[in-house]
Amino acid sequence: MASTVSNQQGGGGQKFALSFARLSYKAQRRVIIIAFSIIPLAFLITFSYFPLYRMIYYSFFSWNGFSRNMQFIGLDNYVTIFTRPEYFGVFTVSLYYFVATFIQMGLALYFATILSFKVRGKNFFKGVLFFPFLLNGVAIGFIFMYFFRPDGTLDALLQVLGLGEFTQLWLGNPDIINVSLAATSVWRYMGFNFIIFLGTISSIPGDIYEAADIDGANRWHQFRYIIMPSIRRIIELNVILSISGAISVFEIPYIMTGGANGSRTFVIQTVETAFKFSKFGLASAMAVVLLLIVIIVTLIQNKLFGEKGA
Amino acid sequence: MRLNYTVMSVFKYFTLILGAFAALLPLIVVLFTSLKSRAEMARSTALSPPENWLNFANYRKAFVDGNMLVGFMNTVIILAISIVGAILIGTMIAYILSRFEFFGSKAIMGLFLLATLIPSVTTQVATFQIINDLGLFNTRAAAIVLFMGTDIISVYIFIQFISQISQQLDESAMLDGASYLTIFARIILPLLKPAIATVLIVKGVNIYNDFYIPFLYMPKTELQVVSTALFKFKGPYGTQWEIISAGIMIAILPTLIVFLSLQKYIYNGFTQGAVK
């Protein structure tokens, strides 16, 4: 990969490279700084900062996204978000995903711990537990639509286990739809936490365990006093990130239910407000609210972990 | 003590098998379904295996009617251009930011780091207008510039990596009269191979799986990628799960092949990509 890139550099611009090399280092420095930063900076400004600025600007207007007619309405969009239940009510849906993150991390930690010791078929289990994370989001959405549909995988499994009376409309019942969707999310992302935990645990030098064995520590002690301290930071970090993660949930519920039956998340609401109902001003204000939450969460995270160093 | 150890061991394997079962069951059932005929669907349950393991009729129908070939072609084009672009852009800016101090270098570094905080899903409302104004709506370039330009994490990975490469290498090359361009191309880039592999894997998986950007910016049928091609199965095949399942398997197959052949690199890539 790297060699093809460097060949292109050497081959395509040979003439330029030769005359460039004749410049003094001071002149070279100036040329290379400008040449190497102009495109990345143009991208950064066009696709990160300019949208951010526009979004904040739009959020004070009533605007349908294409008309020339933009009406300044001050903070009205923000008032709408926090006073109309159909807008702020969707935050409760985030709670399901927030709780699910803890289950996800618990499972990931459990499997990472047992797979970091000697186990038969280690690579098989590692691969199988991680694989779902690599899958296409639309494919996962469809797989679980089939899993939860009437007479689908879950119902068939319950029948086989003699638990037939528990079958129900997993994606049709507003009381459990978010549990089903959050469970799908756990299935999808558990492997990611798992592989990170496994990586961190296996970076603990083996002789620490040996020393602990000599001191008569059992497996629980090893987990509690060797493994936990080394991954505590990652867990704490994930807990904090899960707050913004839970509010930004979009793909799984959008693909599986389109936000029906009370599964609408804040981001689905934002996207529909903009692209379905053409209320760009209001949608921008919602995006600003989401951004503020993410920034607050990050600031808390830096405050808590910043001083301890990376 | 010995009994206790056996109980623990049984419990350990029991949970591992349960975990593997939970991870695989939804996938295996979809594989079964994709090989069943319409009539067979009606008389079998979701868990029962197909009668004919070589019934690929659904795959043919899904691949042809679902225009999956177009999807794969667009995905490959977008994937290749945006990854090469992201790696070039990322290594270039990382090189000058970590090797030179110049007027505004701290500020630029700050701008890149700050941008990692902006979740791209939030700014989409405004980004849409920009893409539209640039005349890129409903072109492959929309996805390409967005995947290339908003990838600040890889800039971050490259900066971290370059600052670990000893400056003395640059200096000794300069004694030999190497230009900064030569240093970048012949010393820095080759040494960045592990970081490039990380970015390649993490970004490759993300772009292949991304649904939102192609869905929003390239609604035209000729421009559909694998994700959006699959998403379209939802309408016309509403209840024909044997066809949808075949579509799912077609979309998953490349991921499975890549995973099985590059397992080690993929694990490393995601571990390094996350512990930035």
TrEMBL record, chain A:
UniProt KW keywords: Cell membrane, Membrane, Transmembrane, Transmembrane helix, Transport
Transmembrane segments: 31-52, 95-117, 129-148, 176-198, 234-256, 280-300
Domain ABC transmembrane type-1: 90-301
Domain of life of the organism encoding this protein: Bacteria
One GO process term, biological-process aspect: transmembrane transport
Compartments reported by the entry: Cell membrane
Bilayer disposition of the protein: Multi-pass membrane protein
Keyword Transmembrane annotated: yes
One term under GO cellular component: plasma membrane
Main subcellular localisation: membrane
Family: Belongs to the binding-protein-dependent transport system permease family.
UniProt name for this protein: ABC transporter permease
Organism the protein comes from: Xylanibacillus composti
Lineage: Bacteria, Bacillati, Bacillota, Bacilli, Bacillales
UniProtKB/TrEMBL annotation, chain B:
Record-given protein name: Sugar ABC transporter permease
Domain ABC transmembrane type-1: 72-262
Membrane topology type: Multi-pass membrane protein
Keywords (A to Z) from UniProt: Cell membrane, Membrane, Transmembrane, Transmembrane helix, Transport
Gene3D superfamilies given in the database record: MetI-like (1.10.3720.10)
Subcellular location as annotated: Cell membrane
Residues annotated as transmembrane: 12-35, 76-97, 109-131, 137-159, 180-202, 243-262
Species this chain originates from: Xylanibacillus composti
Family: Belongs to the binding-protein-dependent transport system permease family.
GO cellular component, one term: plasma membrane
GO biological process: transmembrane transport
Database matches in PROSITE patterns: ABC_TM1
Keyword Transmembrane: yes
UniProt xrefs under InterPro entries: MetI-like (IPR000515), MetI-like_sf (IPR035906)
Principal place of residence: membrane
SUPFAM superfamilies per the UniProt record, alphabetical: MetI-like
